[in-house]
Design goal:
Helices cover 36% and strands 22% of the residues. The protein is an alpha/beta fold.
């Protein structure tokens, strides 16, 4: 595999990516493309904290975090998005959504937590009390009226029944007609990442070309069938930040601001690339 050479990318960049199945196509071959970089895999919320405190130079962070921290720029047209059912972000409701009074939120992602709050408030008129749910926990570890699970765990059916199970990617798409961007590559403005857009886009393209192999490798580890893993990576998820995804991002930020979840009127700045 050829290594992309760029003067400013010979430094040891600290790059963070999500440790879920959904990010595998985005980091395929990334260590070979950027041999001087250090790739850190972690939960989305931890990556956001590490980027904010300077431990990471570039990170695949929850989209909500872009609108909470000043001085960020989007540095790639590679992202994790959904245009309908996402399969790995679900709200398990023990009561009708309009009757939810207590909500358990997965500690792993703040974007999905914000999306849940927006949907419950705007579509069902409820603002429930919230409690954290540890990243290793299941629905049975909480007695809340509804439990949000994200990532690989949400792809397995819990061993209990629910009044309703909401796939938040599908709910958003049915409501807005727009894609939802769960995560994107972001850097702080002061970090020199000239050329990183080409590298991250190339890594994504390599990953999508190897998606069958990725599904075969990851499925046994996650307790999924190979067909489910492959369908998830090719049908449930979209990895290109197009103008439609930008519109979805903009609407999400506006709704989040209305509910005081982010700062209002944050401009989305794209560095070194143009989206379709």
């Amino acid at each position: 595999m050829a290594t992309l050479q760029h003067n400013s990318l010979t430094q040891q960049l600290q790059i963070g990516a999500v440790s879920y199945l959904n990010s595998r196509p985005l980091i395929e071959g990334l260590e070979s493309l950027l041999p001087a970089a250090n790739l850190v895999l972690d939960y989305p919320s931890r990556l956001a904290d590490s980027l904010s405190d300077g431990s990471l130079d570039v990170a695949l962070i929850p989209s909500i975090e872009y609108f909470r921290s000043p001085g960020y720029e989007v540095v790639s047209d590679a992202c994790v998005a959904a245009r309908g059912e996402v399969l790995s972000v679900k709200l398990y409701c023990r009561v009708h959504p309009g009757s939810i009074r207590r909500l358990a939120l997965d500690d792993g992602s703040r974007t999905s937590a914000a999306l849940t709050k927006i949907i419950l408030a705007d579509r069902y008129g409820v603002i429930p009390e919230t409690e954290p749910l540890r990243m290793e926990s299941t629905t049975k570890d909480s007695s809340a009226d509804a439990v949000l699970l994200i990532g690989d765990r949400a792809m397995h059916d819990p061993q209990e029944t629910f009044v309703e199970v909401m796939d938040l990617g599908q709910v958003w798409y049915d409501w807005t007609g727009l894609p939802f961007v769960f995560a994107m590559w972001v850097a702080r403005q002061e970090v020199d990442t000239d050329g990183i857009d080409d590298v991250l886009s190339h890594a994504r393209d390599l990953g999508l070309a190897r998606v069958a192999e990725i599904a075969a490798e990851e499925a046994p580890r996650l307790g999924l069938t190979q067909s489910v893993a492959h369908s998830y990576l090719t049908k449930n998820l979209h990895y290109h930040l197009t103008s439609a995804e930008r519109s979805g991002l903009r609407l999400f930020s506006e709704l989040a601001a209305q509910h005081n979840l982010v700062k209002p009127d944050v401009k989305i700045v794209f560095r070194d690339f143009v989206t379709a």
